[in-house]
Amino acid sequence: MLRSVLALGACALATPAAALAADSVVLGHGVSNAFHTSPPCSPDCMGAEYIWVLDAHRTVSGPKVTGRVRAITLQHTDATSQYVKSVELFVLRPIEDASIRKSSGADYYLVSLSPRDSRGRYCLNMKPSELDLTVAASEVTVDASSGYYCFKASALASNNRWRGP
Predict the structure, then answer these.
(1) pTM to 2 decimals?
(2) Domain total in the chain
(3) What letter does residue 139 receive in the DSSP assignment?
(4) Are 96 and 27 in contact (CB under 8 A)?
(5) Nearest 5°: phi and psi at 22?
(6) In 10 A of CB 131, how many CB atoms?
(7) Which residues constitute the domain of residue 31?
C-alpha cells in the first residue's frame, strides 16, 4: 500500500519545467488525506486526486510556506491515518490555475513526500539537488526497490534557506 500512496503525480499533476523553480520543500507533519475526485486520465493511469492537509513548520528550500496547507496529489488508494501522521517532509508546487484552487480549496500540488524511515532517512522521488537541498551527493543513496533518493534527515539541518517575498 505504501508504494501505491507514494506513486504521486503519475498522470495529471505535471506542470511546465519553469514551475519547478517555485517548488517549496517543507518540514512539518501530515494531518489528513481524503479523496477529492477522479480526473480524466490515460488508460495507464489508475490514480485519483486526493487532498492532503498538512502543517508546514519550516521551509528548507524554495518560497516560504508555513501553517495549515491543503495540497492536491494523485494516489492509488487512501493513506492510513498512521501513515499520514508519519509524513514529515513535503515538496509543494503552487497551483497556478485559479479554477483548480477554487474547486479544490488547495493552493499547492503535493509532488513528493516522505516519512522518516527506520534508518532516520527521508526518501523522495526527486533528486535533492533538483530541490535546491544542500545534501552532499555522497550522502544520497537510491533505494533499489522504489528508485527514490534517500538521505539522512539530519542533512536538512543546514537547509534553512528560503526565497520568499
Answers:
(1) 0.81
(2) 1
(3) G
(4) no
(5) -90, 0
(6) 21
(7) 2-117
